[in-house]
Structure formats: C-alpha cells, structure tokens
Amino acid sequence: MAYNLLKGKRGIITGALDHNSIAWKVAEKAHEEGATFVLTNAPIAMRMGEINDLAEKTGSQIIPADATNIEELTHLFTQAQEVLGGKIDFVLHSIGMSVNIRKKIPYTELNYDYFMKGIDVSAMSLHKMLAVAKKLDAINEGGSVVALTYMAAQRTFPFYTDMADIKAMLESIARSFGYHYGVEKKVRINTVSQSPTRTTAGSGIKGFDNFYDFADKIAPLGNADAESCADYCITLFSDLTRMVTMQNLFHDGGYSSTGVSMDVMDKIGGEG
What we know:
Blueprint: E1 10-14, H1 22-32, E2 36-40, H2 43-48, H3 51-58, E3 61-62, H4 70-84, E4 88-93, H5 99-102, H6 112-136, E5 139-149, H7 161-185, E6 188-194, H8 208-218, H9 226-237, E7 248-251, H10 262-271
Parallel strand pairs: 1-2, 1-4, 2-3, 4-5, 5-6, 6-7
Helix pairs in contact: 1-3, 1-9, 4-6, 6-7
C-alpha cells in the first residue's frame, strides 16, 4: 500500500546492484511513494549489476559516479538537479566494500592498503557526498540523508573484520556532519543499522548463513528483510521524521536489545 509519503520529492539513490540489494528495494518503494530520483553507482559495479532494469521500471535516469571522486560527485549532484528539475530532498548512501573480507584476510593481519581503500569507499564517501552537496547547496532545507550501516560498529562480530571499524567511522561522520548540516540547512543525516540481510554483499561474508539463522532466533521479531528496511528508509526520507537527525537507528527485529532468547537457550540445553 502506498501513502504518497514522497510525493513531489527528488532524490539520489546509490548502490542498487540487483534485485536483492536494499538500495534496489528503496528505489522501488520511493517510486511507489511518488518520488522521482536518479540512480548512481560506480561504473564497475554498474557493469556487474542490473541497474538498467531498475531505471526502466522506475522511470529513472542513471548517472554513473565514483563516490570517492569529488569531481564525479560534483557532476552527480549538478546533473541530478538538472534531470529532476530542482534541489534534492533525499539521498541514500548504500555503499560498502572490503577487499580484506573479499580476500579472506583475518582482522589481525589486515592489508592496510586494502583497509584504506575500504575506508575511502565505504565511509569517507559519505563525507565527500555531503561536502559536495553542501558546497553546491544541492539539498533542500529539511532534506534527509540515510546511510546503511551494521551493529558491528558497536559490538564485536569477528567475521566482519575491518568493515566493523569502517562502519563506526561512517556512523561518526553522520553524527558530526549531521550537526553542521542541521544547524545551517536543517538537513537530517541518519544511519540505519539493519539485520543481517540476504543481499549479494552480505552473503559474501564467511559464515553468513549460520549467523543469519542465529540472529533470527535471537531477535523477538526475527530478522528484518530488505523490503522492510526500504519501508523504514522511506519514513526517514519523509516529512514525518523531520526532527530526527544524527541517530543510528536499529532496524533489526529487536536483536540489538536482546541479550539471549529462550529459543537459543533451549537449543543449547538440548545439546547438553
């Protein structure tokens, strides 16, 4: 059911790789709620994904951009305003990459060049996007920026290795930039900490399936899927959350607030 929550709003959605990605679901929901937007991703990611199908489905234009490159981000925000006919109302930052995880390098033996690449792509890119948008005055007053994160920024999940540190930086940037952008332009900046989700990126993490099942048994409501995460992001883009900023918002079925579940205790007890 659509509520026209984003009727008349313009946006930029990053990171829609395929139909499993949260960004893809956000784009579909934003379209249903009346928004117009441009889609963007790094050129190499676009060659791997199915973004053209999403663009056709939502009537959106694709503007390729490397989120680590200031010049390309400047072109993205400038071109997006021309395509959409005005300033931007919402931005989704759904960008994450760890070469160390991809190459299965243990946390205690990180390749630091890979680590720096991960920081640049997955965290510093948010700062760069916000800095470019602010300099261009590209986001309307009361606009909303949402970045996707994970609870490993606060608690230890050994398999998440350097991405845990990178997500902690991402969340810090959201708070710090959120203050300045809020004071000057009333722009809101929040992060959404999602359940383990069966996306192309998430499924590439070692031991993901076992952890997915574990989290599902701990969370009172079970794991939140990509579609429900998209619903949550839409509310954050809408005027209904106009006083919410600088927050890390858990969207995880209650996992982050649950110490242990009876389901897990019973399972352990049954194995004794």
